[in-house]
Amino acid sequence: MRGGRGGAGSVGRGERDTVARGARLYEAAQAVAGDHGRAVESVRGALKPIHDAAVKRELDAIPVARLQDVTEGRLRLGSVEKSGLRTVGGVLEAGPYRLRQIPGVGQRTVDQMLAAARRLSEAVRETVAVHIDVDRPDPGTTALVMALHVLVEAGPDARRAVGRATVLSERLGPLLADAGPAAGRFRMLVAGREKKARALAAATEIRSLLDEGEGSGLSGLFAQASVDLLRGPSSDIAAWVDFELRSAEYYSLLAEISGRPPDADAVEGFLPDAIAERVRTQHLDDTHRRVSLRGYQAFGARFALAQRKVILGDEMGLGKTIQAIAVLAHLAAEGQSHFMVVCPASVLVNWTREIEARSALRVMVLHGPDRHDAFADWKGRGGVAVSTFDGLRGFPAPGGGEVGLLVVDEAHSVKNPKAKRSQAVALWAERCGRTLFMTGTPMENRVVEFRNLVRMLDGDVADSLGEREALAGSVAFRKAVAPVYLRRNQEDVLTELPSLQQTDEWEELSASDEEAYREAVRAGNFMAMRRAAYLRPATSAKLDRLREIVQEAGENGQKTVVFSNFKDVLSVVREAVVAGTPDGTPVFGPLTGSVPAGRRQQIVDDFAGVPGPAVLLAQIQAAGIGLNMQAASVVVICEPQIKPTIEHQAVARAHRMGQVRPVRVHRLLATGGVDERMVKMLEDKTRLFDAYARRSAVAEATPDAVDVSDTELARRIVEEEQARLGMTDERLTAAE
């Protein structure tokens, strides 16, 4: 008997322990959900007064006569306007009592007027967007940025933890209620047979959930998420700096929390309902991803997964690379091991850096003299291989099922089916079960070229694309290509427009660039080192990328301003841009210090006055102050600047009041040399201080006061580069 009671007692203790552990996990799940909820409420609390103020400004600008439109002309408002109430905002602020005091205005008119004003107010409240001005922070926007910073910094892991916590709470809560009697010996003794049976069954399910949670490290995930959600920014300056670096993530969260998402049809690229529904139900695993997605980006990734072989044609600046990485991460989580990215040499380094920064995937560059050894290593170990179009031609095409996804960036580069690079891509696309072509070039107006791309993905869709679809207009075209093509425009999907998007474009120097750079280092000539990447235009990697940026901006109808510190670099750029835009895109400038101030503004005005795309060339110090270039929505900076404030002021010429599109800034940077050293030094030593100083009037007036010494920085970089390239034994000359 004692043995029987002991056995029953040990079973009871095991169940009690299971219920207690289940209760602790449930509390942790509730805690992380609560911490996240409070962080979200902090954002809402900070957002409300800013949004209310934006709504009031909008209503104060709507003339009272608009109330006639809402009531279909039933209101007589002459006496109201004579009383001094000239805007809808004024009517709402006056309220019913004051309105009734206006001669000739009765109760019925007051009721109709206020009802119409409230309807307009609701419409404005739904549509008005909050814009955060990084150059004019105030207590309200600072509070909002700091509240958002908590959620952005917590990142995808916190979001993942909250999702898991919500699901777990829904499953665990009812089980703990049923398992209540098993929590104590006495309660189990007095429970009826049915309750005992239910309690034992619930305890068994709880144990299964606990085992599942331990296997996936759930407790640690919850604990870390709670810590991250409770940790605020070290200062308002740190939050503002982070906002400048990752504004897209802040705006993404803001749109999500404010509950004002962009138009669903626009997000879904106006796809037919059947395809859109299939895409919506496609699961997207974020286990190997380190970045959150905006709603339209998640839809783009799901589209690629659901449709298997597609073209993602989003407008420049919407994050096609991030969407591709999301697809790669999902497939890796499903067990796929090998992936191939093909891109122009000019963006090879960017792809490797983005994959490393935004995912946990292994990345391998298949480029240069050792590319075949790298290819063999990738074949054996897996990961994401990144190759150029020419490089791909030298590798054997895979067998069926070997490669989980082929990504082709700048896919319009393979529009000519007779070109060898196109044939290589077509063969790989045929052998891969999934293919993702990416291009920011609008393909709707190039039916023949577009058909060539589509044929690599789906022959039936390509055959259906006759001239009739093109002539029938965009609706017919979209319907015909919907199974393989998704394109969204910035103005349709970015309701909370990020006012500034900055991209560092890392380029690998060509052999000729490298030779010119070594000569400059050997001479100890710092300024020559900075512009060596442009000395031999025919083989310049930076110039190739610059041409691509200008061409894509032009094809999207956008104007571009190109900044450099050096006149000779601008001359080289001018020749390259003129030669690289056969459609005759007008090129203005260069604006240099030798151009009289009055003439400079005339050049800018001429640039702004051209309908459609145009390019303006400007010396960064000459054009950085006093000129307004808000006609440009794409900015290219040819080399990093010694003084961060000079770069900031130049960008501010385009990114300012009156700019109706987000500004996209591309900094052209060469790996492994002076550019990389300058970026690292300036980021490490001046980023926080510069961000703080830029917010003071004194620093704005005297930028030199907050920048590092030109001479000291130049001397150090020259010496370090001579040492890196093995030139320390040669006579060192003073940096220019």
UniProtKB/TrEMBL annotation:
Domain Helicase ATP-binding residue range list:
301-460
Q: Which InterPro entries match?
A: Helicase_ATP-bd, Helicase_C-like, P-loop_NTPase, SNF2-like_sf, SNF2/RAD54-like_C, SNF2_N
- Top EC class of this enzyme: hydrolase
Q: Where is the Helicase C-terminal domain?
A: 545-714
Q: What is its EC number?
A: 3.6.4.-
Q: Which GO terms describe its molecular function?
A: helicase activity; hydrolase activity
Q: Which domain of life is it from?
A: Bacteria
Q: Which UniProt keywords apply?
A: ATP-binding, Helicase, Hydrolase, Nucleotide-binding
Fetch the Pfam families from UniProt. Answer: Helicase_C (PF00271), SNF2-rel_dom (PF00176)
Q: Which Gene3D superfamilies match?
A: P-loop containing nucleotide triphosphate hydrolases, Tandem AAA-ATPase domain
Q: Which protein is depicted?
A: DEAD/DEAH box helicase
